[in-house]
Amino acid sequence: MDTRTLCLGALKQGPCSGYEIRKRFEEGPFGHFQDISFGSIYPALRRLTDDGLVTVTDQEQDRRPDKKVYEMTPQGHLALARMVSTDPASDKFRSDLLFSIFFADLLPADRLAELVENRILQHEAIVRELSKCEDDDGHGPHCPTRPGPEFVRGLGLTIHRACLAYYRNNRNFLIEGHLTDNDEPTGGKSDSHASDSDRLRQPATTSGRTT
Amino acid sequence: MDTRTLCLGALKQGPCSGYEIRKRFEEGPFGHFQDISFGSIYPALRRLTDDGLVTVTDQEQDRRPDKKVYEMTPQGHLALARMVSTDPASDKFRSDLLFSIFFADLLPADRLAELVENRILQHEAIVRELSKCEDDDGHGPHCPTRPGPEFVRGLGLTIHRACLAYYRNNRNFLIEGHLTDNDEPTGGKSDSHASDSDRLRQPATTSGRTT
DNA sequence: GCGTCCATGTAAATGGTTACATGATTAT
DNA sequence: ATAATCATGTAACCATTTACATGGACGC
Question: What is the CATH number of domain B3-85?
Answer without folding.
Answer: 1.10.10.10
